[in-house]
């Protein structure tokens, strides 16, 4: 591995050979490829035994690292949740990755409680009511349209016969979330989070 360190592909190949040999000799079972791939993710390489796959790495939709209208505790909590969702995604734990970022969307939405708009004040205390108020008080505006899309995605992911993420899934349904679907849901949610945080600052909320 030391001699292959100058070439990323050769290094990953040597890593695969080493882990495979160790697991074969010591009967420890298959190597933890999900964990290995989570470490390799930033490089764009992934191991799908016996193949080395190139071009898997992709930067997630960016979300502001610090929002001035939120305190440090809130900003840190947002960044921790984003990082955890990305870690789960890169580890192949797709359902948990989407669950984590959906929780964050619900959490960020609560910062709009009490916000004042031209047509009224948000009185809801949890996601569905807050989003409903934002949509009702911003009809015909960008905020109203975006929260409508957000509401539809949240509803689909919450339904046992839909995404099966938030309220469980139909037990007899063997469908499992694919990596592409999980990345789509995470990226969509990250884009909504980015927009909500921008609106939070624009509206001067605290």
Looking at this protein, list some descriptive labels.
2 domains; mainly alpha; two-stranded antiparallel sheet; 7 helices; 206 residues; single chain; 4 strands
What does this molecule look like?
This protein has 7 helices and 4 strands; from the N terminus they run ααββααββααα. With 206 residues, it is mostly helical. The chain has 2 domains: 8-54, no CATH class; 72-202, Up-down Bundle (Four Helix Bundle (Hemerythrin (Met), subunit A)). The strands form 2 sheets. Strands 1-2 form a two-stranded antiparallel ribbon. The chain is elongated and about 70 Å long.
Number of DSSP helices?
A: 7
Strand order of the largest sheet: 1-2
Order of helices and strands: HHEEHHEEHHH
What share of the residues does DSSP label as strand, in percent? Answer: 5-15%
- Compute the average pLDDT: 86
Tell me which CATH architecture of the largest domain applies here.
Up-down Bundle
Distance between the termini: 52 Å
| Sheet having the most strands | 2 strands, antiparallel
Per the principal axes of the C-alpha atoms, what is the gross shape?
Answer: elongated
> Domains counted in the coordinates: how many?
2
The CATH class of the largest domain, by name, is Mainly Alpha
Estimated radius of gyration:
21 Å
CATH fold-level topology of the largest domain: Four Helix Bundle (Hemerythrin (Met), subunit A)
Helix content: 55-70%
User: How many beta-strand runs?
Assistant: 4
Tell me the structural class: mainly alpha
Residue windows where pLDDT falls under 50 for at least 5 positions: none
